[in-house]
Amino acid sequence: MAGKSTKVKVSANFEANLEAVRRLLAEAGAARAFNALLDDLAATVIPNLERFPTMGRPFLSRPAYSVEARDRIEKVRARIGAGELREYLAGDYLVLYALIGRTVFLLSIKHHRQLSFDLAGHWGVPKS
Q1: Which of 40, 43, 66, 84 is spaced 20 to 30 A from 34 at the CA atom?
Q2: Is 127 domain-assigned?
Q3: Which structural domain, as residue segments, surrounds residue 31?
Q4: 86: which strand partners?
Q5: Residue 36's domain is classified under what CATH number?
Q6: First to last CA, the chain
Q7: Is there a domain that residue 56 lies in?
Q8: Residue 86: which H helix or E strand, with range?
């Protein structure tokens, strides 16, 4: 599906995630990177999704290995109906979006540092 007729809408959760990314970058002394992210969203990510809304990887194609995961996947499928849930990797960021009809709903954005675990920090093990 390609064409400029796809609309992109931003969810409240996406906006909250952007604020969390802004704080993460500010704490890391990389506040300018947030402005670069906003520029990239406006100049690249959103136009790409408008033109090629299926470009992201299908999110629900991953196998579910637990009963809890299967239940949550079924709830998500029921909520989006005939729509698709997809993920788009944009530099250091992972964007989760739903494609429903001719509308892309930006649901979540995370910096790669928000997607990993600091197990040593959780267990009080000194970092080397």
Answers
A1: 84
A2: no
A3: 7-122
A4: 58, 97
A5: 3.30.2310.20
A6: 49
A7: yes
A8: strand 84-90
> Looking at the domain assignment, is residue 24 inside a domain?
yes
Please give the C-alpha separations between residue 88 and each of 17, 46, 57, 106, in angstroms, as whole numbers.
15, 11, 7, 10
Looking up tokens 């709903």 gives: 105
The answer to the question of residue 2 being in a domain is no
Tally of domains within the chain: 1
Residue 60 burial (CB count, 10 A): 13
Return the SS3 of 74: helix
Question: Would you give per-residue pLDDT tens digits along the chain (128 residues)?
Answer: 554 589 999 999 999 999 999 999 999 999 999 999 999 999 999 999 999 999 999 998 888 899 998 898 888 888 888 899 999 999 999 999 999 999 999 999 999 888 765 556 656 656 55
